[in-house]
């Protein structure tokens, strides 16, 4: 699958040169000359990386970067004709993966883009791993709490309760996590008695 790069630059000549150069390098390009147009493009296709001019008419590059970060979690680089410390500091605070000073030579920009894409992939993998861990912890906690409540209700051991709960879920075609949440929130009575009798020797 081709990597898609969004280029947002209000100078039409610079936009054309960047888009053509990056396309020749093998990237799929979404080109926009304003933040508003870029938002429309992103609603149709989410890019893998964005190159943003800081000084855009209407929605500024800073504002658009915040929208990208908060709404789509798309990583970005900034383009600017200025390299003053205040602007660079603002870019860093927003989490930009790079800061490119115009005028730009596409062959010189490509290594920075490749590095940014690699870093973006690493960040995405870390976020996914964190999400998976949170989901696993949430699942484990709710099931453990439900088993504790059901053990008290039916006077069964932990293993007996777990086996009976699993059998109950299978016979009713329900996910164990869903049933566990219902037990914890007391939204549904779960009768494990038939399954407990079957599980005991």
From TrEMBL:
Response regulatory domain: residues covered: 4-117
Keywords: DNA-binding, Phosphoprotein, Transcription, Transcription regulation, Two-component regulatory system
Record flagged with keyword Transcription regulation: yes
GO terms for cellular component: cytosol; protein-DNA complex
Gene3D superfamilies: 3.40.50.2300, Winged helix-like DNA-binding domain superfamily/Winged helix DNA-binding domain
SMART domains named in the record: ANTAR, REC
Residue ranges occupied by any ANTAR domain in the UniProt entry: 123-184
A Gene Ontology molecular function term of the record: RNA binding
Pfam families given in the database record: ANTAR, Response_reg
Any one Gene Ontology BP term: regulation of DNA-templated transcription
Positions of post-translational 4-aspartylphosphate modification: 53
Keyword Methyltransferase included in the entry's annotation: no
Secretion signal span: none
Family annotation (InterPro entries): ANTAR (IPR005561), CheY-like_superfamily (IPR011006), Sig_transdc_resp-reg_antiterm (IPR008327), Sig_transdc_resp-reg_receiver (IPR001789), WalR-like (IPR039420), WH-like_DNA-bd_sf (IPR036388)
Protein name, UniProt field: Putative transcriptional regulatory protein pdtaR
Organism of derivation: Ferriphaselus amnicola
Taxonomy of the source species: Bacteria, Pseudomonadati, Pseudomonadota, Betaproteobacteria, Nitrosomonadales
């Amino acid at each position: 699958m081709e990597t898609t790069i969004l280029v947002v630059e209000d100078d039409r000549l610079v936009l054309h040169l960047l888009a053509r150069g990056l396309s020749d390098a093998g990237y799929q390009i979404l080109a926009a000359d304003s933040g508003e147009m870029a938002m429309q493009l992103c609603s149709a296709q989410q890019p893998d990386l964005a190159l943003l001019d800081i000084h855009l008419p209407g929605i500024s590059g800073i504002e658009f970067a915040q929208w990208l970060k908060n709404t789509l979690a798309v990583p970005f680089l900034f383009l600017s004709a200025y390299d003053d410390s205040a602007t660079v500091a603002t870019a860093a605070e927003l989490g930009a993966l790079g800061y490119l000073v115009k005028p730009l030579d596409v062959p010189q920009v490509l290594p920075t883009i490749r590095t940014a894409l690699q870093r973006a992939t690493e960040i995405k993998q870390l976020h996914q791993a964190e999400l998976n861990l949170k989901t696993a912890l949430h699942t484990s906690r709710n099931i453990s709490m439900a088993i504790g409540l059901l053990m008290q209700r039916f006077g069964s051991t932990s293993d007996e309760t777990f086996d009976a709960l699993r059998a109950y879920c299978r016979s009713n075609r329900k996910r164990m996590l869903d049933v566990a949440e219902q037990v914890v929130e007391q939204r549904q009575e779960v009768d494990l008695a038939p399954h407990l009798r079957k599980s005991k020797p």
